Amino acid sequence: MGAIGRYGLAVFLGLVATAVGAGGTERGAPVAASSRGELLYENHCTVCHESVVHVRENRKVKSRDDLRGWVARWSSERKLNWSNDEINDVADFLARRFYKFGKREKG
Description:
Layout: H1 3-22, H2 36-45, H3 52-55, H4 64-77, H5 84-99
Helix pairs in contact: 2-5, 4-5
């Protein structure tokens, strides 16, 4: 299995572990709902690229502002007509999931 294959498998297993752990183990505990940012990303962004783009060594995003700029650029490029809130939600999802940036300051 090549490096990408091993990496893809590791990412997949990590996603499965996260999904299983997110729902809790108590009887009747609800499964955590996906965020709007995650749903938008999964439905629109993964058409062109996989999550590998966010974790490669030479990634272009260096800050939360960079990340928001790329999300805005590509939502415009793909003519998605996303609102500022939707752009922020996708950027927040990516910041938490892949980039490990701190929470966005609202204001």
